[in-house]
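**Discrete fold encoding**
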Amino acid sequence: MDTFEIKEEFLLNGEPFKIMSGAIHYFRVDPADWYHSLYNLRALGFNTVETYVPWNLHEPKKNDFHFEGILDLERFLSIAQDLGLYAIVRPAPYICAEWEFGGFPAWLLNESTRIRSNETVYLNHVADYYDVLLKKIVPHQLSNGGNILMIQIENEYGSYGEEKEYLRSVRDLMIERDITAPLFTSDGPWRATLRAGSMIDEDILVTGNFGSKAKENFASMQSFFDEHDKKWPLMCMEFWDGWFNRWKEPIIQRDPQELAEAVREVLVQGSINLYMFHGGTNFGFMNGSSARGVIDLPQITSYDYGAPLDEQGNPTEKYYAIQKMIRENYPELPQMEPLIKQTMEKKSIPLTDKVSLFATLETISEPVRSKYPQTMEQLGQNTGYLLYRTTIEKDAEEERLRVIDGRDRSQLFVNQELKATQYQTEIGEDITVPLKQANNQIDVLIENMGRVNYGHKLFADTQKKGVRTGVMADLHFITNWEHYCLPLDSCENVDYSKEWQANQPSFYRYEVALEEVEDCFLDLAKFGKGVVFVNQTNIGRFWEVGPTLSLYIPKGLLNKGNNEIVIFETEGTYQPEISLLKEPLYIEMKEG
């Protein structure tokens, strides 16, 4: 049985060991492709895989736990071990990861507590989660014959708080549940974050996160170690080999040769975890959002990240540049040829059915009634869309309507006719509408575009979604609302026998028979905004603003034989045919 220790060096079975790790998030990769991605990591000559664990997927509702399919962490770890890979596990409570709410379940927003603090209510929820999660992790520790080298306490806490009692509480929750693997923290490499977020006085290993200038950043970490008389190995726990992307912004690029040299610079002094090695996909509604002043900027569905493996898991120029650098500098490390998946093309898949959201609303959601609008969280909904409905009397030929304090994107309809689309900074502005009837139906469709995953807004009311104050006509708040929750986990209850109306949010169903299946990319260049379901799995959001104009479909979601693709589109734009492509589509954008 292997042993792992942290002394002046990392020691594996008593011998010096350089950790050469790559990040692969099991929850961002179809399970049928886990072997492919992990093999390619081993083929590069690396010895370890790192993964976060997303609390919000494993416990989407309080005490409702899931570890099946794409959430089968144990199977992922076992595949890695079979390939000869060790593992580093980062099991929340907070993960950042450009992930919805930084991995926190949205139901925490209903709790009277402050997350990422030593408050009892919050820690009790963490304890309940760890009661279930850590039983999945403990058997895979090195000491139990598994492959886990180290486990992280919290994540980049020094960029958020400095409450050492909280960090100690998280550590104790782990130890009380039989975590025996060495523990560590990771933070920015400068003194302020290391001081605030580390547990150096508790003898917990400190690691740093950066994407360049290894000499300077390791020197800063070493100075902090010396200040506390610690003789520890240096490790970059997140070496950012690319970057994430947001809607309306160009894809961020990094030169492969420059990256390979930067990786070599890290390895000269210490150990490394490439973040990301395979980025994968923010399936469903799991993209996070960046906090920028009064607005939040949501990230795109693709988490390609510009990583050594592209979104589907195939090697890129960065992979081969790092491979060459490893071969030249560490010739003793075994390397293999990487696996490469094929892609397929299928053009002109015809539209089979279409129906307006308003027509099928009662088949996919049951109304909840209240005097004033409620938020998603109050209604027990985590993500997706929420439709608010009421009627108003005609007081004037034209009426002034306002959505007060809504998040994130609002479409207001009068008698099922779109009158205004507003985003965060526009919500609250006047919407002047003609009223043609004595009584008029008002519908407000709100999209939750993703909660922030990092920074000062994590615990604030700004992350509650929907209409948070109310809707006004003239100078008064409108009452008597119906709420239709639209989490859109699937679209199986959509009734296509009902009516379709142009220029309304609608469902469009396409059917295609496939003799063979491979990875592909759905062309969405001529659609507006919405989400896509492939055989009832929500594969994520699309938006015509770019930079991406396609969505990745892993072959594991497709069937030999009949397949159903459903597009929920909110802007009234659709096509009579769709196509599956071999490569992703992008908009060419300029910086700024």
